Amino acid sequence: MFGIGGGELVFILFIVLMLFGSDKVPEIARTMGKAMAQLKNATNDIKSEIQKGAEANGLDTKSLNSLTGNINAEIESAKSNLLGDTTNLLGDTATEIDKVKEDIDSLSGPIKRQR
Fold first, then answer.
1. Residue 10 in contact with residue 17, Cβ under 8 Å?
2. Which Gene3D superfamilies does this UniProt record tie to the protein (predicted)?
3. DSSP class of residue 3?
4. How many angstroms separate the CA atoms of 83 and 80, rounded?
5. Helix (H) or strand (E) holding 113
6. DSSP secondary-structure letter at 1?
7. Is residue 16 within 8 Å of residue 28, measured between CB atoms?
8. What is the torsion angle, in degrees rounded to the nearest 10, for the CA atoms of residue 12, residue 39, residue 62 and residue 67?
9. How many CB atoms lie within 10 A of CB 79?
10. What distances in angstroms separate CA 109 from CA 46, 53, 95, 101, 102, one per listed residue?
11. DSSP class of residue 110?
12. Predicted confidence (pLDDT) per residue in 97-111, tens digit
């Protein structure tokens, strides 16, 4: 639940109990429960309105899924084209870096830190 462990939950409840007292805690919990229920109902209403609007405009879930599938396929195609070119670039760059590193090592030899 929101990444809160048992010990943390007990600590939070203890702090709430200390701040508000034992007589106010049930009232606060009831109020929070009602607020959560109202929030859930509001989000469900918004979802249903969006669904009704989409259906009124001729969009159903199948057409939306195919549309997003086509968009995702194009994105993956573009990624593979871009990444395919950069891997060759990175491979060539790594080879050149290794060559320069070997040249520097052969010229300078092992360098040790002096204390």
1. no
2. 1.20.5.3310
3. T
4. 5
5. none
6. -
7. yes
8. -80
9. 10
10. 70, 73, 20, 11, 10
11. -
12. 888 888 777 776 666
Residue 66's SS3 state is: helix
Tokens of 61: 């879930």
Residue type, 39: L
pTM: 0.42
Residue type, 109: G
Instruction: Quote the tokens at residue 55.
Output: 């259906």
- The H-assigned helical ranges of 1-115 are 6-20, 25-56, 61-108
CB 12 within 8 A of CB 4: yes
Query: Residue 87 has what pLDDT?
Result: 54
Query: Which two structure tokens, joined as six digits, stand for 13?
Result: 């409840």
DSSP 58: T
Of 45 and 94, more confident: 45
pLDDT band for position 46 (cuts 50, 70, 90) = very high
Strand extents, DSSP E, the chain: none
CA 22 from chain centre, in angstroms, equals 39
